[in-house]
Design a protein that fits this description.
372 residues; alpha+beta; Neutral Protease, domain 2; four-stranded antiparallel beta sheet; 9 helices; 18% strand; disordered C terminus
């Protein structure tokens, strides 16, 4: 996560040895099939010289592009629709469906089928809860390194985690797939504001468990995360705000961004607003900002606009100070018998400190100066 990019359209041609299988961001547009009967090999790059093949990929709007290539890969595919089914060789998904491809080392076939199920369930769930994944395929690749890392249209997961019954493998798969919404589509500076993609992506793990399984399974996971953060605080580590650069966290990065951050979305927003209003806000945020680069104010504005609530106090406590936090339009001219009309120049936080009420929402806030 050392860089971030604006979206662009990619067209890439590259040549590989003829025995290589290729996974890449985008769509292979010069695919061919070779062989006959049971010996047919599908979706190969065409020959371009002795022992070589040349692949031609194009993409929709993506932030960057990754290619993984090598010999020995197997691949299985399913469609992320209502009915889960592993495709046979030569079958294809419908045009309006997403093909999920899992590339794996040959001896990991059973684990690959598990990963395929985790990934297709993730795409189906996040399509419904967040908004539509706009591309026609998503690749998940077993690799030698990285625990799990995301790229547009492709995620990679370390082979050391490919074990049947490994709960971490399932959560990692759901997490990296969720990054297709939070980082790939709704972009951010992952170095200066890592919470913007990692915290909502980690919250997406809760969404996955709730919908792939049930409320109990998700609740147990959330409770374990809450307890982990309490243990972190009990060791006198700092309760830092979310809107800081990676360099500001030192050893607290994981606890703040990956644990406190998703708990903020769940405890402070979903439970406060109610699930329906919460997801209305998430979907508005996604619709407004896909293919863009967001700042913290964009999250606040989407949640306030979707719900009609004033959430500055909650964001100031957990996220911290950031441009756009003070929006006093809804307070101007409102009467308070104790102090008279609210000055039109007063910031929303100053109004809450003085009047003790969130402007425009009717939600009572603690008296006295908030803890920023």
């Amino acid at each position: 996560d050392a860089v971030y990019s604006e979206t662009g359209l990619y067209e890439v041609l590259f040549t590989v040895p003829e025995d290589f299988r290729v996974a890449m961001s985008g769509t292979l547009i010069n695919a061919i099939n070779e062989g006959e009967g049971d010996r047919v090999k599908y979706d190969l790059c065409p020959p371009s010289g002795e022992g070589l093949r040349t692949c031609h990929y194009v993409s929709g709007p993506m932030r960057d592009s990754l290619v993984v290539a090598g010999p020995g890969f197997g691949v299985i595919t399913a469609c992320a629709g209502d009915e889960y089914r592993v495709l046979s060789d030569g079958e294809a998904c419908d045009e309006d469906d997403v093909a999920v491809n899992v590339y794996f080392w040959r001896d990991d076939d059973d684990v690959a089928r598990d990963v395929l199920r985790f990934a297709t369930d993730s795409v189906r769930i996040f399509n419904e809860k967040f908004g539509p994944y706009p591309f026609n395929e998503l690749d998940v690749v077993e690799t030698f390194n990285f625990t799990g890392i995301e790229y547009p249209g492709i995620v990679v997961i370390a082979e050391r985690n490919w074990q049947r019954g490994n709960a971490f493998l399932e959560i990692t798969t759901a997490h990296e797939v969720a990054h297709q919404w939070w980082y790939s589509l709704v972009g951010n500076d992952q170095v200066l504001q890592p919470w913007l993609d990692e915290s909502i992506t980690s919250y997406s793990e809760y969404v996955y468990l709730r919908n792939a399984y049930d409320e109990r399974r998700a609740g147990e996971y959330i409770d374990s995360e809450d307890q982990a953060y309490r243990r972190y605080r009990n060791q006198n580590f700092p309760d830092l705000v979310l809107d800081l650069p990676v360099s500001a966290y030192d050893r607290s990065y994981g606890a703040i961004i990956y644990t406190k951050g998703p708990l903020f979305y769940y405890q402070e927003l979903e439970q406060t607003l109610g699930r329906d209003e919460f997801f209305d806000a998430v979907q508005l945020y996604f619709q407004r900002h896909r293919y863009e680069v967001v700042r913290s104010r964009d999250v606040l504005e989407a949640f306030e606009d979707a719900t009609g609530q004033d959430l500055d106090y909650i964001f100031a406590q957990k996220v911290g100070e950031f441009p756009g936090l003070d929006r006093a339009e809804g307070c101007r001219g409102e009467l308070r018998p104790e102090f008279g009309p609210i000055p039109t120049t007063m910031s929303r936080r100053a109004v809450r400190w003085l009047y003790g009420t969130a402007c425009g929402s009717g939600r009572m806030m603690p008296q006295g100066q908030p803890e920023f």
